[in-house]
Amino acid sequence: MALLRVIDRDGTEHEVEGKTGMKVMETLRDLDYGVAAICGGMCSCATCHVYVDAAWLDRLPEMMSDERELLTELTHYADNSRLSCQIEFTPELDGLRVTIAPDE
Prior knowledge:
Structural class: alpha+beta
Helix content: 10-25%
Number of strands: 5
Distance between the termini: 32 Å
Shape: globular
Radius of gyration: 12 Å
Strand content: 15-25%
CATH topology: Ubiquitin-like (UB roll)
Order of helices and strands: EEHEHEE
Oligomer: single chain
CATH architecture: Roll
Number of domains: 1
């Protein structure tokens, strides 16, 4: 089992099974932690906004320009912001820790 650590909007940390080969957003959307993923992973709505733990940032693929543009327009943007629809959960990301960003 590949582990995904998720901190919900109440600050509670959950350890859930990450679905390898799928986007992190897909796992988060199936849980009831506030990730709506309205656009279905098309990088157009930012309802899957998460903060990635600093220890994991260098292990993720580089952010594409459309993701960066969308994120930087958000009120709750931070240096460790990512759209979870743009992060494929691979075996190398076993243990990834993300925090669900506040709703915009």
